[in-house]
Every structure is written in structure tokens, then in C-alpha cells.
Amino acid sequence: MSLSLERYIQAAPNPQSAAIRMERLCAEAGVEQRLLRMQDPLRKDLISIISLSNFLFNFLVRHPDAIALIGTPPRPDERELANLRNPDDLRLYKYQELLKITWMDVSGLCDYREVLAALSKLAIDVVRQTLRLALPADHYQTFTQSLSVMALGKLGAYELNYSSDIDLIFVCVNPDKSLEEYQSLQKLLFDCIRVITQTLEEKTADGFLYRVDLKLRPWGKSGPLCMAIDDTEHYYAVSSVPWERFAWIRARLIAGSEFLGNDLLLRMRPFVYKRSLSTDDLNKFIAIKSEMSDARKRRGHWNVKVGEGGIRDIEFFIQMLQLANGAGHKQLQTNGTIAALSVLRETGHITVAEEQEVLTSYMFLRRLENRLQIIDERQIHDLPDERDKRLVLARSLAVNGDSDAEVLDNFEDTLITHRSIAKKYFDRILPGEQTG
Description:
Order of helices and strands: HHHHHHHHHEHEHEEHHEHHHHHHH
Number of strands: 5
Shape: globular
CATH class of the largest domain: Alpha Beta
Helix content: 55-70%
Largest sheet: 5 strands, mixed
Structural class: mainly alpha
CATH superfamily of the largest domain: Beta Polymerase, domain 2
Number of domains: 2
CATH architecture of the largest domain: 2-Layer Sandwich
Strand content: 5-15%
Distance between the termini: 55 Å
Radius of gyration: 23 Å
């Protein structure tokens, strides 16, 4: 193995894994020649990726030609997407794009917001292509004209993780024909939704597209797979479930009828952004905060998403300010967490220093979350206790130190700093409630 590669192997997040995997990868035909043609920084990035990510290493063993994608920014080509012929082609496309995005992430050459946006754009492209590939042409036309696909959660915020479930809600047109004809349309749409979700979730040797979560729809698992827009509006108009308002802050139309989806978003604004918060509203929000605090005490490992000083703390702070002030400041009616933080500063709800402090901590926690998920493409949020696993995480985040012990100490200090900031803002919102 060349001295150049040896140097990069030792600098990888997991040098032992990097050495074994580079030897395995080089056993594939043509790989050594590709490595010789790569620029040194790209070799370094490739070694870092395979030392960190099990699923991307396995992908490269199956598809060694994809090494050529390292160093290529993800720029989806509509013609390339249109030429995909089946879900297998789409799965291959997804992992090729994920490899490009991971290079963006590992190389550190871009603002991390670009990584989150690229992951989100990829998921939306995949959902749209799944509709086209999984449905017969006549069903596809009916589906896209009669129904809108709404994304909530991280995808709605355009801040997706490497292994997020995608939270989807389907809304269809109002009945304008006979009851029998409308029931026939609904049955067709239900069947289409089932086919789409099965296609997205199907696992093969090349992986899967996306896990789909439909539980955020009205009445959750017991509710219909889609409802008419008037029925959907009525459901939320009388809803007393406070978390549904938080969920719809991040709603985004991603496929289907644009007219129907945009109409729904307009109708939902009075539900999400009330002109004033009643005592009942505040009590419900306080109850949510208390539940979040109580849930932490029942956990073992620290959880980067819902643990004390985790991602949810910052999101709760930002979304509470959006709910409380969004009716009077239309700019706050944005579905992105990072975008909302910027608007909160512009509207005077937080200072420039506060914006920067919250943003820095939020981005660190999101990078840590993705480092956990990039290993096996699993929805992992618990920080491991094992020293060697934490060291790999620390090195993957470019934490500095003259020894492994110093790297770990610096990582722990950095984590404590950002957790403390997240908790500080969580405690600051609804301050009358003691969270313990």
C-alpha cells in the first residue's frame, strides 16, 4: 500500500477499519487504477468515508465504479431521473447521490446546511420518481391530479438526516361526483398509497429507498390513508392535540397537485398560528415540555435527539417562538428550523449573539446525529458509551488533539458546551414550568 494511502488511513476516523476496507476494495478490478487517478484530497475523503460508513463501504464493494463519484457535488439531473426505468435503478441512483452527499459532509468544504438540503432534495426526488415508476400511467395521472403529498418532520423542514423516516400525509380532492364515483376514487388512491409506501420501503441487496411514517395523519394509525381537503381542514379546526400544531409548522408540499397542496397550506395557517395563545394553549405547551423532561429521566444512554440538551430542546425553543409570534409576523411562518432562527433575529425576538449561539449548537448536534446514522443507515440517536466508538465519532467530527485521550476529552468538552446551550434555551421558553 502506498505511503500516500497509509498516511490517510492513519488520519481516518477508524484507521484499523480503513486499512482492512481499503485492502478489500483494492481487490476489486480497476479500483487501484481509479485511486491512482484521484487527487490526494479525494483519496483521503474516500478512506474517511469507508472507515466510517458500513453501508457505503458495502455499496462501493458492489459498485466500485461509484468511486469516480467522490468529489462530485450532488446536482440532480432531471433527464437522468426521467431515464430511470424501475425501482432498482432508483435505489442505485439514491445510493450514488448519498455517496456524493457524504463526500460533501466528510470533506467539510461546504456549509452544513447544504448537506441537509441535499439530503432533503434527494428524498423529494426519490418520492416523486417512485410515484412515476410504481404506478400505471393512468393511475399516476389520477393520483397527481387528485391528491397532494405533504411532508412533515425533518423532510418538511428541508433538513433531513441520513436515515430519517419520511413523515407523509396524503390529502385528496373534495367529492364533486356521486358518492359511488368518489368512493371508487378513494379506493384507487388508497391502493396507490399502499403501492408507493411498499416500493419506498422494499429492502433488496442494494438497500432501500426510505422508511415511511404515516402516523402523523388525522387519527394516526386508525385514520384513513387520505382524507378530502375539507375534512382535513375540519379535523384540525376542532383538534385539541397540541403537538399537531408543532408538526404542521414544518409542512411542505412535495408531490401531487400543487393547487390542492397550496390551498391546504393556506387553510392550515389559522390552526398553526393563532392570533393569540389562550391559557389552555399555554398549559398544553407546558405539559409537552414537562413530558419531554420526564422522558429524559427514563432513558439510559444520552440521546442526541430527545436527551437533555439535545436537538429537540433547540427545536422546541424555536417552534414555541414561532407559534407565539407567527400570526403577527408572517415571516415566522416558515417550515425550516434554521430559517426560522434567522427570522427570529430579524424580527427582534432574539439577538445576533443568541442566533449565532443557538445555530452553532444546533449544527454541531445535527452533525453528530448524522455521524451516528451514517454508520449503518439506521435511525440511531443514542450516543454510545464505548470509548472506541466515541473516539471514532470525535475524529469524524474533526475534533483535534495530540493523542486519542486528548481528542476524547476535547470532544466531551465540546459536547457539554453545546448541550448546555441547548438546555439553556429550552429552560428559557415557558420559564414558569420547572423542568428539574
